[in-house]
Amino acid sequence: SRNIRLAVIPGDGIGTEVVAEGLKVLEAVGGKVETTTYDLGAKRYHETGETLPDTVLDELRGYDAILLGAIGDPSVPPGVLERDLLLRLRFDLDHYVNLRPVKLFPGVETPLGGVRPEDIDMVVVREGTEGLYAGAGGVLRRGTPHEIATQESVNTAHGVERVVRYAFDKALSRPRRKLTLVHKTNVLTYAGDLWARTVDRVSLEYPDVETDYCHIDAASMFFVNQPQRFDVIVTDNLFGDIITDIGAAIAGGIGLAASGNINPERTAPSMFEPVHGSAPDIAGQGKADPTATILSVAMLLDHLGLAEEAARVEQAVADDLVERQTGWSGRTTQEIGDDITARVAG
Amino acid sequence: SRNIRLAVIPGDGIGTEVVAEGLKVLEAVGGKVETTTYDLGAKRYHETGETLPDTVLDELRGYDAILLGAIGDPSVPPGVLERDLLLRLRFDLDHYVNLRPVKLFPGVETPLGGVRPEDIDMVVVREGTEGLYAGAGGVLRRGTPHEIATQESVNTAHGVERVVRYAFDKALSRPRRKLTLVHKTNVLTYAGDLWARTVDRVSLEYPDVETDYCHIDAASMFFVNQPQRFDVIVTDNLFGDIITDIGAAIAGGIGLAASGNINPERTAPSMFEPVHGSAPDIAGQGKADPTATILSVAMLLDHLGLAEEAARVEQAVADDLVERQTGWSGRTTQEIGDDITARVAG
Ligand SMILES: CC(C)[C@H](C(=O)O)[C@@H](O)C(=O)O
Ligand SMILES: CC(C)[C@H](C(=O)O)[C@@H](O)C(=O)O
């Protein structure tokens, strides 16, 4: 049905501003959208000490999807909101696929010279529920000359195989049918061995998908000087974090990069968010580009089976992006949202 | 004295070819160079099962410096030569500074549009003896659906502080005097806290150095769209591995990226090597660019106190690079080496 029950977490900084535009576009698509807003983030943390109360997490499970703006504020110690709110959502709602398209839209300026839109068209399937993000590790003798701090990457057959399977399916659905594993098997030998063996084994079930392997360092370089190399990429949580920011850079900047934290089995709602952060330096000034959030709304629609609506939003963004190059810039967050909304509605 | 006792490890693939050119340039600089070549690498491993015998490691300690080509071959399981040879050298010779300049020479083509040489001029100080490269980790129930593979990043106050101090000194010696810590403190909270606290504390002793912090994902993006941001970067082993490959990409490619594995206290010889790998696909064809190795030789000379000689080699490379843009390409490995050698000698 076209009735969407949506939980909205605007979050911190520019999060509120960009989410407002995302919602505008979502309404314009048509159908019924019921939204409930949750005031999670720095403000609530300062006022109540709460990051993500269990009762709120339980409530969130009842929605069709979650739209999130951005989490993080310099007034909160590093890691508190990230770990206890954003990553807790991803982990507890089992968002094991962090889906991040890297696509250069026509008309968008890239810092890479001589690159055409067809050269940058990939999807990164980033694992979202384990690896170095597990929070495993510890510290001994903190603050002394004998301090030791560890940080552990946890990788399970269960966790790796399911995201690898998702990536193979994704590759099969695209014209090039190419899947590249990005890891660092020559140094992270235990984790790398699990990832490489899993890709090898699952690949036997996908004879039509060409598989490739690339070390994270080389892949990061190829994003810059040979982005054509990639179609679908599967990688772990941290490597995915890094290369999708390089991806954002080459595809026109963080203002355009969308993402979906997907629970493919739908045992809990998936969560859609721009790749960018809360950008406290420009918050409240109408300077943020809401496009990444709007493209995340398109991913949300697609996830809910509304492919036609998703395509309509993506087309509206594409058209807007083409017009931007003709010097039509300097619009506020709201103006960009209004213009894209008008295209979707009209 | 100008008498250099040098251990040479050409290694695998193009390693042999590029090292030959590096040595040619080194001889041309003048002074006495005594070289001893060690046949470590894939061939020796296959013939004898040896990677780095203890006796060889002990012998290597007696030299003034080591010049290394490249290590790694697809015929050897991933990690064997990397861990037991290359990383063992870095770890056992206490190369705690992995120094990697990222500099766009005039005349060199960068994939970034509209960027000038002065926009890309930084030095990455990568930690070289701990972090995720420690080899810590393990696997349980390998090959079963219940497999778990871990990989641990080990960070010590001792290890972090010494490399941070080196980086502050480096920053102080450069005109901009800016040091950026690159990490992921919001997720790798234990390790990140140690790194951030150490930089904060040591910064008090360097009031003339401006310090900055950047998450690895954002830093990777800024390498592509705001490289001007960076002067000296200090970071851990894995993040350093990744950003220096992005650095190589933006500064004209892996064929130009030099590095030094430095033991600042000189308790063991430092080791100089191009950032690139053994490139088995083009090995033996005279296609490899020896420039990265020649620039590593310049770093070697500088490390041995031969600053004038180092500058001469770097200038010869700079001049060669300017000429390349006038369409003078298609030279073989040996021809490039000969041309740079002629400039150094003449
Ligand atoms: C804010 C941070 C925890 C997060 C991450 O590292 O995953 C962000 O960088 C992202 O990519 O969504
Ligand atoms: C070959 C590999 C072990 C090595 C590393 O990861 O350090 C290489 O990528 C480098 O950067 O020198």
UniProtKB/TrEMBL annotation, chains A, B:
Assigned keywords, A-Z: Manganese, Metal-binding, NAD, Oxidoreductase
Keyword Metal-binding among record annotations: yes
Domain Isopropylmalate dehydrogenase-like residue range list: 5-340
Signal peptide span: none
SUPFAM superfamilies: Isocitrate/Isopropylmalate dehydrogenase-like (SSF53659)
Keyword set includes Mitochondrion: no
Cofactor(s) of this protein: Mn(2+); Mg(2+)
Protein name, UniProt field: 3-isopropylmalate dehydrogenase
Organism this protein belongs to: Planomonospora sphaerica
